[in-house]
Amino acid sequence: MTNHPVAKRRSQRLASRRPASMVINLASLQKRTPCLVVESSKEGFRVRASLNLRRGQMIELIFDEDRAMAEHCSVVWVGKAGTKHEGEAGLETVHDSRPALFGLL
Fold this sequence. Notes:
There is one protein chain. The chain is an all-beta fold and about 100 residues long. It has strands spanning about 15-25, 30-40, 45-50, 60-65, 70-80, 90-95. The chain has a single domain (about 15-95), classed as Beta Barrel (Thrombin, subunit H), CATH 2.40.10.220. The N and C termini lie far apart (about 55 Å).
């Protein structure tokens, strides 16, 4: 049996319970839904929400304590039904010079 090195995380993750909202575009309409940020790192977030997300989807994450600051993110994974990550998603922060993807609601 070959031992494979365990891939290390790019950065430390910090557990949290920060209330936030996600803004997504659905058929040219913006939808804002509450979520809970359960982990964060300098690369992104793990969130818990009752929303059907898909990999590659762009969202805007707005923290309740600072609504003026929004994080533009891409969905990188979605927890499968029946697993401990059901209802969760991994978001990667997108840093670019383009204008905001969505207007704040």
